[in-house]
Design brief:
There is one protein chain. By secondary structure, this protein is an alpha+beta fold. Helix content is 24%, strand content 37%. The chain has helices at 102-123, 126-143, 174-179, and strands spanning 2-8, 15-25, 29-37, 43-49, 56-62, 71-74, 79-82, 87-89, 98-101, 149-155, 161-163, 168-171. The chain has a five-stranded antiparallel β-sheet with strand order 8-7-10-5-12, with no helix packed on it. It is globular and about 50 Å long.
Length: 189
């Protein structure tokens, strides 16, 4: 099914087009893929899974450069943790899903940490600058296989995964699920 709608751009308030299309996605099943681009440059894309699976945690020990190729499928309700870096990527209300690999996840983290480190340096925060530089250094070492790290992907809706023979899947408990953000507004009436 394909559908086109229009809405006001949240940046410039001009009308922009959104394309909606259902697709069958490997590992996930049927999904609604949404994409929109405004003439001002604003872009929005998302994938909404039309089913729900068992809440799950995937844990991958990244011990050599080959592990960087493991596929990471993060839905808009997925939380990524890299404890050795002290990094948690939690979903927000505008969270977008993506399919990447461990290298791509580290690149996304690196971009945010690099920006925060530059901002800390400009603000004169020596401690935050050092912390950011240490995270960036450890990411570079991990790419070379010289810094071991763990990538944990948790999803209360079960729509995220790490696809690798080395990834360990476990079911989330009710208590663990309650501690996770979903990126969605939930009304409890």
């Amino acid at each position: 099914m394909k559908l086109t709608t229009s809405a006001n751009c949240p940046v410039c308030n001009r009308q922009m087009q959104f394309n909606w299309e259902t697709q069958e996605i490997p590992y996930f099943g049927e999904a609604m893929v949404i994409a929109g681009v405004c003439t001002c440059g604003f872009r929005h894309s998302d994938t909404i899974l039309l089913g729900q699976k068992e809440p799950a945690r995937f844990t991958l020990q990244v011990t050599d450069p080959d592990d960087m190729d493991a596929r990471v499928i993060r839905s808009s309700s997925g939380t990524i943790r890299v404890p050795e870096l002290g990094v948690n990527v939690e979903p927000g209300h505008a969270s977008e899903s993506y399919v990447s690999n461990v290298e791509g996840v580290l690149s996304r983290i690196e971009d945010v940490v690099d920006f925060a480190t530059r901002s800390a340096r400009e603000a004169g925060s020596v401690e935050n600058t050092r912390r950011g530089e240490m995270i960036l250094e450890n990411i570079a070492l991990a790419r070379q296989g010289r810094f071991k790290l763990t990538v944990i992907l948790e999803d209360p809706l079960g729509n995220s995964a790490i696809v690798s023979d080395k990834a360990v899947r476990s079911v989330l408990s009710t208590e663990e699920i309650e501690c996770l953000k979903t990126g969605m507004l939930i009304l409890d009436v």
